[in-house]
């Protein structure tokens, strides 16, 4: 195939059918392939090949393997050939303590591979030198014990001795000029395995005293701790309640305390050093010397990067001795003439990097292109940033947000009316007890007062046993509602002159009798200044409700003046109060604030010096704005005004 196909071609099934032992493979219940049923595939030539694995029923998965001949020429086989040719893999990721792990390796060389394996974690390590791997399919066996509990690193090293009969690599792939196939080869790999720690979880049960509570009522939460056998466990608990509306906006799933507090004993990969990195073959040294002399003969002024050892596939680029000579000569062409100017920045004196001295600026006209514009923009940027930010800051200062307190300074709290509490204390996390002791009984009951919110709260408990060897968490739901519940349905702000409708959302409980008549009224608290910010055009609505029904009840109103309007919504059923809710709506001006400033130099004189300033106010809607004058002497007031 050419590239990565988007669909599996029908003829791809023949790739496996022609290979002995590659049909009817099975896997165990743990997903491990039977090592006795493994099949070895060999790419017939250079190129891209599609490898497909199909399940009975026609479900297939495919990958593209191989490199084309041009790709091999651009990046020939180098010092890491053996690492590229081998693909060791563990038969599983997780093992039981004492279980044997198998590392599958296919040896493509005609000679055996010596093996060294080291594995372990930060607490314990082991190593073995198993028998050499013969050519073809093989496996390295190692028994995992305490050194892999909690995870361990495996360092696998495979070495091929020098072999005079290995004159060429398998597949006749292009090789680096500096690679000697008959020389020793080394390949190192890092793998990872895990042996789970002993079970340390404890069961945490969270139960609300009543599944449904009224807003502001006194409730209770019971937490029970038990081990795997169900016996009570003493320990410490962190208990909290969070409004699920907040969790929907910012999800925060429960944390696995045991995993979070378990130490990371796996550690980093092994660091290995070998003399193989210093080996250079006689043939490689001779080839390097011959290529170096031929390049310098073609151009004595070449500045070459050269080494006598073949490059690896992860090197940034090949050395000049491994590249095509014509490419090396073409890449080392410089300008003969330098224009008489330049900024002299990084590499500015190098003709190959351009006259403007910019990094990689290889255009001789780059100096005319760069100029001083970036510097001018940099100097102007702070002023432009301040000019753009000032109106936004002024708008933020002029937009008071609604608060959750029951009353604000400067005005009396709204009248609650007989028989119903006006809900205004809204809290997203009404319960937070970070450290609670649970005794030997394994049970603890915690009282708490529910806020004025209606909806659903998630009760969450995190626990650790007294011995510190058991962790767990549990959750439960606490519903908060009334037979008839109100929730706000208002805009964030209003502006003077706006005519709009808003109000509340009315929700009926599942056990509300069908056809219940409900009356919703909306009142406006007395304003601290005149005129009042809002004018209500209607104040009453009556409707019939069914169980679990939700209805939005909107009232017509008009924004009249700047200020903070405080509304009280009430609902009653059959003449009896059912719920009441406080709403706050900031009313802002029709445009953002505008700041004007003037100044005068002061001279000390014996007689008073009068200074007159005037301002012509624009035509505006009465009550839609205000004027604030600030006076000061010296520089400090000016700084504070714009800070």
What does this protein look like?
By secondary structure, this protein is an alpha+beta fold. Helices cover 14% and strands 30% of the residues. It is built from ten helices and 27 strands. The protein has helices at residues 14-17, 69-74, 81-85, 244-249, 257-261, 282-298, 325-331, 366-370, 373-397, 636-642, and strands spanning 49-54, 60-65, 89-90, 100-107, 114-120, 125-128, 136-143, 152-160, 185-193, 203-208, 212-213, 218-226, 235-243, 422-423, 431-438, 443-449, 455-465, 471-480, 484-489, 494-495, 499-508, 516-524, 534-536, 540-545, 550-559, 563-573, 576-588. Strands 14, 20, 22, 24, 26 and 27 form a six-stranded mixed sheet that branches. Strands 11-18-17-13-15 form a five-stranded mixed sheet. A four-stranded antiparallel sheet has the order 6-5-8-9.
How many DSSP H or I helices? 10
Strand content: 25-35%
Biggest sheet overview = 6 strands, mixed
Structural class: alpha+beta
Helix-residue proportion: 10-25%
Average of the residue pLDDT scores: 78
Question: How many extended strands?
Answer: 27
Q: Provide the low-confidence segments as ranges.
A: 2-8, 10-21, 33-37, 342-417
Quaternary state of the chains: single chain
Shape: extended
Report how far the terminal alpha carbons are from each other: 66 Å
Return Rg in Å. Answer: 40 Å
